Each structure stands twice: as C-alpha cells, then as structure tokens.
Amino acid sequence: MKKAQIVIGLGFGDEGKGITTDFLASQNPDSVVIRFSGGQQAAHTVMIDDRKHVHSSFASGALRGLPSYFTEHCTIHPEFLLNEREELKSQNGNIELHIHPLAKITTPFDVWENRTNSKNLEHGTCGKGVGATMKRNESPYKLFAIDLIAPKEMLLEKLKRIAYYYGFLEENQIKEHLKSFLEAIDQIDWKIDDYEYLKSFDNLIFEGSQGIFLDMDHGVFPNVTYAHTTSKNASEICKQLNIEDIEMYYVTRSYATRHGNGWMSNEKEIILKNNEEETCIFNEYQKELRVGDLDDKLLNYALKLDAAYTHSTKKNLVITCLDQIDKEMNLDKLDITFKTVYGSFSPYSEDFKKLF
C-alpha cells in the first residue's frame, strides 16, 4: 500500500521543515520528496556530516540522494534553479527534478516587481518573485513549466507580453533582463511530468513551505504568503493518487520565530545558544528574524485548523532547536494525541530522538 508523509510548519515558517524532511528521507531512501507550495523563496537547510545545502529550487531530500518533484502549486525560477543545481552537484546531491506542467514560472520581471513595489516591501517579501508570479498568473499573462519546452518563438512572445504587463516597453531593456534567464533555460534538461511519475513510488514525502500562520486564507492579512501552507494541497494530491495511508509531521521550534513584518504573539528577546549555523538572518527584504515564547493556544489553533484539510489519523509532533533555550516545553496543554513526539538539537542537526 502506498504511503504519504506530510511535513507542515506550525508557525510563521523557519520551524525546521527541511531537517524533518531530511530525517524522513533517511528513514525512507526509496521515496520521492514533493514540494506542494511556495517555490524558490524557501531556505530549507540540511547538514549531513560536513555537507550543508540550503534547499530552495530542490526538495530537502536532494542532499540525501532522493529525487525532487514540484507540483502545480509551486513556482520555478530557471536561473535560480540552475545556480542551485550546480551547488548541489558539488555536494554530490541528487539533481533529478521533475516538475508538473502547470507549475508557475517566475521571470526576471516578477523578481523586479517583488523588489520594487512599495506594497510588497511593506507587507514583507523574500525578494524572489514568488508573490508577483502567483498574482500575475491570475491575469491573462500566464507562464507555466510546460512553456519552457514550447517552441522558442512562442516562449519569447509570452515573455515579451509579461514584460509589457509590468511596464517594460523598450526592446533592449527587455532583452537585457532576459539574457541570463534564457541561457539558464537552455542549460537545463527539463523533466515536465504530471502525477503519473509519482505512481512509481510507494512512499511519498510532502515537504511544506513556510508555516500555517502565513497561509493566504488563514494568516493575518496583509502579512501572508501567496500560497496554501496547510496540508490542503498535499491532501488533494493524495486523493488523486488514491493514497489513504497518510502520516502527519507537525514541526515547531522550541520557541516561536517570524522572519519579517506582521503580527506575532509572545514576541520577546530570547538569548539563544548553539545557533551558529542559523541561516535565517537579516536581509534587505525580509528584515530581521524575530523570536518569542511559544503560544500554546496558537499551536492548538494551528493543529485544529489543519485537521480540516487532512483525513490522517497518524500525527507526530517534531520539536527542533531543543538545545537553544533553557526553558522546557509543556506539552500537556496541546489538546491532540500524537503518535510520536520527536526532538532535534541545534538548527540543522541529524540527531533526532523520540521524546515520547
């Protein structure tokens, strides 16, 4: 019987979904890892011995040797993908990537929009063009993964129309923006596959992006992402593939985090230990990584909310960064029964242990 394991962040992102996915990949080496939301803005860091990789355009099983699959709910930026592919190759990771035909393609013009639009900067952005891509694809100016293998003349015409959509009218300016983008497309052997590809695997690992409180429907607007960060998309794919054996892995740090603007409960200054490998640092678009105490009521809210989207009865809790604060977690206030509670030490440690 086919099985699915779904990894979901219980907060505002940065919970440890990458190392949780890598942990599951180490336990199930014949699996495929599926991204079902977000895109190249992810920064899921995995460390294996002396190898370290930040997964964005590849899923977090790649360093472990597993193939990646990006669904139609994701975005792809060819130039970012090419750069990460070369880095993964140098780390002996798996660069096999299959992409759904209807995955959205981010163009240089989308990145420009994300980085210059004052509303985007106010609401919060990673500056990778994901939000602009999703919004543009609600207009007539769409671009999908399947277009990357369309006749070149057709692709160029679609890109030109997208440039016009954003106000780029000068031919030389458009060509300059597209030069390295088109070169990247030509250097990649695109594997465009629908869900038939997934049927060859008995175990599917679904890797979530960001966290439940950034969900486009359930976060506090306007500081949300343009994606469903609950298990909604993953559960719908499981239904299409007739997978009924579903196990959830809900992830939180031992303290709360939020990278960028927006509401956050229990925010306070916390002295962290053993966080030298932290990759969630200040950048000009997201700004600071904010921290605070965990909110038991918010965790319970997130768990009950996600239960509306999944029919799974097997649920696990994963707590990361247990060695970064002195305060112990009180799990008695979580009103849900977990099959197993796992703990991980340091941000990207392979040292997962069963706590309960």
From TrEMBL:
Cofactor(s) essential for the protein: Mg(2+)
EC number, UniProt record: 6.3.4.4
Gene3D superfamilies for the chain: Adenylosuccinate Synthetase, subunit A, domain 1, Adenylosuccinate Synthetase, subunit A, domain 2
- Give me the residues that bind GTP, please: G13, D14, E15, G16, K17, G18, I19, C321, L322, D323
Entries under Pfam families matching the protein: Adenylsucc_synt
Q: Which UniProt keywords apply?
A: Cytoplasm, GTP-binding, Ligase, Magnesium, Metal-binding, Nucleotide-binding, Purine biosynthesis
| Residues the entry annotates as binding Mg(2+) | D14
Indicate whether Manganese appears among the record's keywords: no
Q: Where does IMP bind?
A: D14, E15, G16, K17, Q210, T225, K287
What are its GO cellular component terms?
cytoplasm
Could you tell me what the cofactor note in this record states? Binds 1 Mg(2+) ion per subunit.
Entry's localization field: Cytoplasm
Q: Which family does it belong to?
A: Belongs to the adenylosuccinate synthetase family.
Return the protein name: Adenylosuccinate synthetase
Q: Which gene encodes it?
A: purA
